[in-house]
Amino acid sequence: MIGAEMVETAVRQGFKVIGTGGPLMQEKGLVPLWDYNDLPVSGVGDVVPKYFSLKNVFDVLSDAAESKKCLGIVAIDYPGFNMRLARLAKKWGKPMLYVAPPQVWAWKSKRASLFRQADKIRLAVFFGIETKAYKQLGCDTIRLKHPVSGWTRRYAERKSDMLLLPGSRRTSALRNLPAFVTVAEKYRKVWAENNVGPLPDVVVVASRESLEVPLLVSLEKLYDGRLPSWLKVIVAPKQMGRRLDLYSEYGAALTSFGTSTLEMACVGIPFAACVVPDFLTFVMGKILVKSEYLSLPNAILGCGVTPEFIIQNRMNDRMAEAIVDAIFQQDFATTDEVALRLHKVLNVGKKPDELVSEFLAQFVQGQAH
């Protein structure tokens, strides 16, 4: 979504934009060099099986970046690829804008050393904790407004229904899904014990269209081919505003770690963050991750406003009950207060079009390229 606004700005100024990006970026003029759906993976155990495929993608990107026709590089998040591109950009002396660079405040702080004395690499960050961490490590950053800060809530009646957001990476989403459904079943049971009326429905959110069918197939297997009437899958709206409007109508949510935790917190509904990591990722995380919190709202605000759970093996009744209790213990007055605090701290810095326009200005010498 950030990339789409940047692509639109660059194309409007007469630049050609090539690379990898989702459908929103392609709609705005990005010429794709590879299918974006091959890229979203996370965790050591998920990346290793796709190593050769991902290497092919990287080779295509690095060849394009090294070309004399390439004036500069814009990278967004995805450090597994983009840190390697940053090393090449530094070696070539090629201008680079890196939006959402590695989370050095949480782990692998040594990665910041790449950006020291790299005058042609600009770092743009969303959170104050990132600005502080990079400054302590000797790197300057530009603050960028987070897209959620521009959203205004429509005060509509909330449903009692529950959202499940198992993740944007296919492998991890399918690994999380059975545990999430177990929690949803427990949520409905506890709700029935304390309320009257129809039981809440449960909606599984596919972060993009290519995940809808895999999630449906996985759910049907869980229920021996007979999907319950109270359970369905929808595709998340591409536009941030429409997506947050949708989320704000629900009564509770369970989400994997990532940007979705920030979206849930900013719409002000009770939720918990949960993940079922593969074994290698869990072990590496225990060794390397130094942050006290894993969900973004907690890390940004520096306190435990969001319940966090890591399921090391399989979800059991005790853990499911703990997660459901954590959700029911939240009230809307508290979640609304957290949402207001987050909107305030995220509404700082430049907009994406301003940021990329400043970056592109160095390539304009009397005429557009």
**Euclidean distance between termini CA atoms:** 24 Å
Largest sheet: 6 strands, parallel
Helix content: 40-55%
**Could you tell me the number of beta strands?**
12
Mean pLDDT across residues: 90
Strand order of the largest sheet: 9-8-7-10-11-12
Contiguous low-pLDDT stretches (5 residues minimum) are none
Proportion in β-strands? 5-15%
Shape, per Cα inertia axes: globular
| CATH architectural label of the largest domain | 3-Layer(aba) Sandwich
The helix count comes to 15
Structural class: alpha/beta
CATH top level of the largest domain is Alpha Beta
Using the coordinates shown, work out and report the CATH topology of the largest domain.
Answer: Rossmann fold
- H/E element string? HEHEHHEHEEHEEHEHEHEHEHHEHHH
- Total domains: 2
Write down the Rg.
Answer: 21 Å
Write the layout of secondary structure elements.
Elements: H1 2-12, E1 18-19, H2 23-27, E2 31-32, H3 44-47, H4 51-66, E3 73-76, H5 79-92, E4 96-99, E5 121-125, H6 128-136, E6 142-143, E7 162-165, H7 170-194, E8 202-206, H8 212-222, E9 231-235, H9 240-247, E10 252-255, H10 259-267, E11 271-275, H11 279-288, H12 296-301, E12 308-310, H13 317-328, H14 332-346, H15 352-360
Parallel strand pairs: 1-2, 3-4, 4-5, 5-6, 7-8, 7-10, 8-9, 10-11, 11-12
Describe the structure concisely for a colleague:
With 369 residues, the chain is of the alpha/beta class. Helix content is 44%, strand content 12%.
Give a verbal description of the structure.
The chain has 369 residues and is an alpha/beta fold. The protein has two domains: 2-145 and 348-363, Rossmann fold, CATH 3.40.50; 162-346, Rossmann fold. Helix content is 44%, strand content 12%. The chain is built from 15 helices and twelve strands. The protein has helices at residues 2-12, 23-27, 44-47, 51-66, 79-92, 128-136, 170-194, 212-222, 240-247, 259-267, 279-288, 296-301, 317-328, 332-346, 352-360; strands at residues 18-19, 31-32, 73-76, 96-99, 121-125, 142-143, 162-165, 202-206, 231-235, 252-255, 271-275, 308-310. The strands form three sheets. It has a six-stranded parallel sheet with strand order 9-8-7-10-11-12, sandwiched between helices. It has a four-stranded parallel sheet with strand order 3-4-5-6, sandwiched between helices. A two-stranded parallel ribbon has the order 1-2. Helix 5 links the parallel strand 3 (73-76) and strand 4 (96-99). Helix 4 (51-66) packs parallel to helix 5, helix 7 (170-194) packs across helix 13 (317-328) and helix 10 (259-267) crosses helix 14. The longest helix has 25 residues, at 170-194. The chain is globular and about 70 Å long. The two termini are 24 Å apart. The model has no long low-confidence stretch (mean pLDDT 90).
